Amino acid sequence: MRVAARIIEQLHHLSLSQALTALKAPSHFHQTHAHLIVSGLTSHPFTAARLLACAALSPSVSDLPYAKTIFLHTHDPTLFMFNTIIMASSKTLDSITFYVCMLHAGHFPDNFTFPSLIKSSSASPTSLLGTQLHSHVVKFGLERDVFVVNNMIAMYSSFRELGTARKVFDESFRLVDVVSWTTLITGLANSGQIDDARKMFDLMPLKNTVSWNAMISGYARSGRISEARNLFDEMPERDAASWSAMVSGYSQGGMCNEALELFKEMVSGDKMIPNEAALVSAVSACAQLRALEEGQWLHRYIKEKKIWINVTLGTVLLDMYGKCGSISEAARVFKSMPERNVYSWNSMIAGLALNGCGKESLSLFWIMRFVGPSPNAITFIGLLSGCSHSGLINEGQWLFSLMTQVYGIRPQLEHYGCMVDLLGRAGLVKEALDFVETMPMKPHPELWGALVGACRIHGEVELGEELGKHLIGLEPHHGGRYALLSNIFAAAQRWDDAAMVRDLVKGRKVLKNPGNSIVET
Q1: What is the CA radius of gyration of the chain?
Q2: Chain-wide mean pLDDT for the chain?
Q3: What pTM value is reported for the model?
Q4: 444 or 275, which is more confident?
Q5: Rounded alpha-carbon distances, angstroms, from residue 10 to 16, 26, 192
Q6: How many CA atoms lie within 13 A of 230 on its CB side?
Q7: d(CA 382, CA 415)
Q8: CA gap 439, 279 in Å, rounded
Q9: What is d(CA 191, CA 214) in angstroms, rounded to the nearest whole number?
Q10: CA 319, 322, 327, 333: dihedral to nearest 10 degrees?
C-alpha cells in the first residue's frame, strides 16, 4: 500500500517528465492502475491524464495498446489526454482518428496537437493529408508557432515538395530557428538539390552540428566526397554523427581505405565512441577491400568496448568474414546472433556459396525454411551461385523451380545468369542456350559472355563462334568480348581466325580491360 501511495505521489509530480519515470516496470504500472481503480481515483481528471501519459509515453512502461484501452474507457477525455494519445500514435495514421474524435468532442487543437499529427501524415502515400492538416493549422491560427512550422517543412520535404516547404519557410521567416533552417537544408540535400542546400547553408545566421552533418551527408550521397571532406575539416565541433557521415560517405563511395583511416582517427585515444552507422560502414569497407586483419581488429574493438551487436552490425560482420574467406568466423558470428533477419540468413548463405560450400548453404537454407524468415530473391541468388560453384545441377534446378512455383518469386536476370552459369560449367551448353531462349526478358551481355566462356571450356567451337560474334555485335567496344572469341579459336588451333580477331581489335581501336588485384598489406 505504501509503495502504491509513493508511486501515486510521484505520478502527481508537477513535472510531467518526472511523473513519467514514476513507474519502473510494467508490473508496477498494472498494480498502480488496479489500486487507482479500486480507490476510485481514475475518475479524477489529473490522475487519469497522468496514468494515460505513463502508458503512452513512459520510457520504461509504455504500452500503446494498453494506453489506447485506457483512453477509450475514459469518460470525457481532456485536451491533454487527446494530445497525449495523438503523440503516442504519431508513427501511424491512428493519430488522425483520435484528432477527428477530438474535434467531435468540442476541443480545439493547440500547438501541441499539430506537430504529432503532421509527423503522422508522413505515413500517408501522398501529401494530401498533410496539406489538409496545414489548412487546419491556418484555420486555428497556429501557423506562427515555430514547432508547427518546422514539422510542416519536414512533412513537405519528405514528399519531395520542396517548393511548398520553402514557401512555408519564407512565410515564417521572422520566427524560424536553427531547426527550421536545418530541416529545409536536409530536405533539399535528400532530394538531390545539393547546390540549393549549400546556398541555404551559407545563408544560415547560426549553424549547429546537425546543420553541418546534414550538408556532409548530402554531399556524400551525391558522390561529392571531396566537398564533404572540406566541410568536415571546417567544422568547429564534431559529434559521432559527423564522423559517421564522413566514414559512411567514403565507404559507400568505394573509398574504403580512406573510410578505415578516418575511422581509426575517430577512435584513436578514445576521441569519440562510434555509433552503429560508423561501425557498419567501417566493417563494410573491410568487406569491400577483403581486408580480413582490419575486419578482425574492428570486431575486437567492438567486443572490448562492449558495444551491443544488433542484427544490422552482426549481419555486416558475418558478411565481411564471408567475403574475406573466413567462413568459420562468419558462422560463429551467425550462431551468436540473438536475432537474425532475412539479410542475416542471406549473408550467411552467400558466404558459404562464395567459399565453395554449396552443400552447406543448402543445409542452412533447409533450416531457414523451418525456423527463419521467408526467403526472398536475394536468398536464391546466393543458393544458385553456390550450386553453380559446387556443380550441384539437380539441386540448382530444384531451387529454381521452388523459387518460382512455391515462393512465387519472379526470376530476375541474376537468377537466369546463375542457372546459365550452372549448366554451362557442367558442360550442358546447349541446355543453357535453350534456357536463355525461353527467358521472358532480353538476356544481358554478361549472360551471353558466360555462355561463350562455357563453350570455350567444353570445346563447343561452332556454337562458341556463333555466340561470340553475337556478343561482339552487342558490345563492339568491350575488349573482353573479343578476347573470349579469340581464345575459342586458339583452343581449337584456328590460328588464322584468332589473328583475325586480334586485327579487328586493333582496327576498331578497342581498349583492353586492365587486370587488377587486391593484396592486403
Answers
A1: 30
A2: 89
A3: 0.81
A4: 275
A5: 10, 16, 49
A6: 6
A7: 9
A8: 41
A9: 12
A10: -10
